[in-house]
Write a structure and sequence with these properties.
The structure is a homodimer. By secondary structure, chain A is of the alpha/beta class. Helix content of chain A is 38%, strand content 18%.
Chain lengths: 315, 315
């Protein structure tokens, strides 16, 4: 059974780590958001690709959800002493990934090519694809209530997400470069040929939307609607991790499984929601999606595997 | 007394570390070669600037002559595991310098501006200037006896120096970009206003030549000829460190203090040679330079200080 997963960062990565334990990893393709990517210190950093790779490899830092386990911070400490831009944490081992990627890109490799090389080095059995080899970058327009005279200004995603700890309100999002980007080789085929397409429990607005925004991807998913299963990243009205709930509210979308259902109904026949949201099943159905209720909080690989089994059983 | 030192890497750095102990550091300006610079892993690496800064700061790795003392190698080890380009050693602390420089350059800072910032962070009392803020890059044409079908091909300086351990014979050198480069702010003034201009014991062909090749620098030095003192990097017919002797022979220049004198006579009135070369003093004078004989091997700061005292006494 072929499974294709549209993926952002932590939630998607945990889901994938469970999925590869309940199905043949070789039949799994993750299509990963690249709109969080940035160049910092001259290094091409792909946070979602790395979180997926490190997590599926069992090497993620379990406390932060990003970076590598057992990491050291020698370079960052020294960079801070030099007065450098140390707001984006890069561990010593993690840095090697960014050095490798940047050098290979400079040598002419594609992002999908480098991602495949890294996945192999980390011993992954599944396929990890950036949604595009072209640059797509989320730009965030801050809301009128933003502090420090920032209201209305547009900043890079990581400036908002990490630099401002995603504390400032958001008025709008756009995905720079998306309209000119092409899906990476294999992306559309993976969606088309999958038995089940999963929309992982990732931030719908800044992880899944920029994947769908690459021309051809949204249409390919919509064509498979009957076999598309989305997992709600909102549980009991809150995001398990990250700012999805506040971001949805900022942009006029109800931060609930019902709000998620309204977003995903055109793309997916089924929404998997957590048991705490069982009472909203009717609302989800009312929004046009079949509702499956099951525990969705992935505290560890066993919970992730159980969720993955339910999800692929409904595709 | 103002002293201006034309500098390459290790030899110049050791000389400067001695010099700042025998004269007011605030009156010392090092004008440093940038033709060994390169971009690797997306990082702007300036080997000679870093060697000078680290050495004067007392933080150089004394065993290698490059990199920082007490360094760790976590990132490099991981990069090697990933199959990355690990031929150019970058320690974890050293990496912070390259990250800092690269990010500041991307933000619009000049190389001389960044170098000043780094010198301040490392607590330097003297001024360190790259000879130019513009890119100058040494390109090496390999000689007919080069191995592996490489004869006649042109490679980057570090590919030859580090990648090939400077083992391959050299047919020609050129300094790409030099003719379009401008001296960094302060460079020509430092030469013009110095009481003594020193040509440090650096490789004449790949460290000093690309400094002189920046338009305006050679002329400024020549105008100060009476106050220019060169220190021979060749001692007893051999380079103390690096390939200067073989490079000189490859390019038809006698690898001796006499050969050095013939190179530097148009620019410097005085050549300081090591005691082992006392017998060649007449040859040096014959080549048109005053010859000063003194111990020049800088095993430590005291020896470097003694040499510096002799050198500035003859400017």
């Amino acid at each position: 059974m072929k499974v294709c997963v549209l993926a952002g960062g932590v939630g998607a990565a945990r889901f994938l780590a469970g999925l590869v334990t309940v199905t043949d990893p070789a039949s799994v393709t993750a299509i990963v958001n690249v709109a969080d990517d940035m160049v910092l210190h001259g290094l091409h950093i792909s946070p979602d690709l790395d979180t997926v790779t490190y997590t599926v490899a069992g090497q993620i830092n379990p406390e932060t959800g990003w970076g590598l386990v057992g990491e050291s911070w020698t370079t960052m400490g020294e960079l801070e002493r030099l007065g450098g831009a140390a707001w984006f944490g890069l561990g010593d081992k993690d840095l090697a990934t960014h050095l490798y990627r940047t050098q290979r890109l400079a040598e002419g490799a594609t992002l999908s090519g480098v991602t495949t090389e890294l996945a192999r080095s980390f011993g992954l059995g599944c396929r990890v694809l950036p949604v595009s080899d072209d640059p797509v970058r989320t730009r965030v327009t801050l809301g009128p209530a933003a502090s420090g005279g920032l209201a209305g200004s547009e900043v890079g995603f990581q400036d908002w997400f990490v630099g401002m700890s995603h504390d400032e309100p958001v008025a709008a999002l756009r995905f720079e470069g998306a309209e000119l980007a092409a899906p990476a080789p294999g992306v559309v085929d993976a969606i088309t040929e999958a038995d089940v397409v999963v929309i992982a429990p990732s931030n719908p607005l800044v992880s899944i939307e920029p994947v769908l925004a690459v021309p051809g991807v949204r249409a390919a998913v919509r064509q498979r609607r009957d076999h598309v299963v989305a997992v709600s990243p909102i549980v009991g009205g809150r995001a398990l991790k990250g700012p999805a709930d506040r971001l949805m509210a900022d942009l006029g979308i109800e931060p609930s499984v019902t709000g998620v259902a309204r977003l995903y109904a055109p793309l997916a026949a089924t929404l998997v929601v957590d048991s705490v949201d069982a009472g909203l099943a009717d609302d989800v159905e009312g929004a046009g999606m079949r509702c499956v209720v099951t525990p969705t909080v992935m505290s560890g690989r066993p919970e992730a595997a159980a969720l993955a089994r339910v999800v692929i059983g409904h595709g």
